[in-house]
Predict the 3D structure of the following.
Amino acid sequence: MADAAIKLGTEPKTTFFDKVKGLLPEEGHLNLCLTCGACSSGCPATGLEDMDPRKFLRMAALGLDEEVTKSPWVWMCTQCRRCVYACPMSIDIPQMVFQARKTWPKDKKPQGIMGSCEQALRTEGNSAMGASSEDFKFVVEDVLEEVREADPRFKDMQVPINKKGAEFVLNQNSREPVTEPDEMVPLWKILHLAGADWTYSTAGWAAENYCMFGAEEEGWEQIVRHKVKAVEDLEAKAWLNTE
Amino acid sequence: MQKFKIEPKFRLESLIKYYAQWIREGKLKVNSDWNKDLKIKFTVQDPCQLVRKSLGDPIAEDLRFAVKAVVGEENFVEMYPNRSNNFCCGGGGGFLQATGYQDARRKYGKIKFDQIMKTGAPYCITPCHNCHSQIHDLSDYYEGGYHSVHLWTLICLSLGVLGENERVYLGPELAELGL
Ligand code: SF4
Ligand code: SF4
């Protein structure tokens, strides 16, 4: 029997592949692979760690759970979904990769991602760089003051924070307030000139979410819920994403 | 949000859509006269998060509309493939922050680097933070010599309101334009 050789024990086991199938809508179409290779030929991660999306799927289907879930390749797939876009059967390989990330113990996951996730959970603004909301507010006000003084065309420019009932709540990647605050200014100027009714929120202001990348579902959900609540508390009509 | 069965009481919107809308409505009076004689070429990265993973080709069109209005239609160069079919820059999914995976990230990004180099454009517009950092790093690492710029920088440049301290990602030929 061909598949007897790859069974590890005599007990029928639920493989990683079966588990993922059970989790995805329409089983992620995982059984429908035509082995055409369209996914792999258009995936920039093909060849890294001697892996590619088609191979990943085939190995998982064969029940090679250890090889699949423990491959560092799962951190090299960027979840870009180009393979799904190219696949004639819309097979959701990145979701499999995500599920494989979930099987890694916290201390084995890439530390940069995990650190960013922890910082975001620790701070009111969900900042992966650990910036506090007070610091964020301070930097914004400080930079605004400078611009108003430097350029008379913007002497009346406003950067509202926690303004209720604005049309947009705008988020902000932590990188700007923390390392290059002047990069926030062009966007403020655009919003000012366009006459947009917007505000920042000190709760959940940071745009990034590394708990998601780290496949830390609890943290991911906590952050999303916190940000949603912040926008709802300010009664905004839209959450405007800078990217 | 769908994943966690959250139904928010607000809309989720992308800034890119509004850039295009405000330009169409005449609220942002951009023009590309500054680049008429300079003829500096620009290409654009389609961020996966914005295009393939959420709003698709319509937002890629809005992005191009805004870019062309700002740099001039004749100074815009497509990379191939593009829009929903574009390649990921290699900075997504946490790759940029994944300590210990730097070599792999740059190998992944080589495709993006080659795509940009093929356009011959000295500027790649990157309307996403991960893309911006990654494409910037690729230029340094592989010595491409191109610049990675935010769209907001160019919009303000074309409006004549880009301040002195807001130009770190511009090359020398634009460092003083309109000051
Ligand atoms: S593109 Fe789809 S059908 Fe083709 S090999 Fe990849 S997963 Fe299988
Ligand atoms: S989602 Fe992952 S496997 Fe699919 S094309 Fe992108 S990097 Fe490759």
User: Anything to note?
Assistant: The first strand of chain B starts at residue 11 and ends at 14. Chain B touches chain A through 61 residues (CB under 8 Å). Residues A 33-39, 54, 57, 86-89, 91 surround iron/sulfur cluster (ligand 1) (CB under 6 Å).
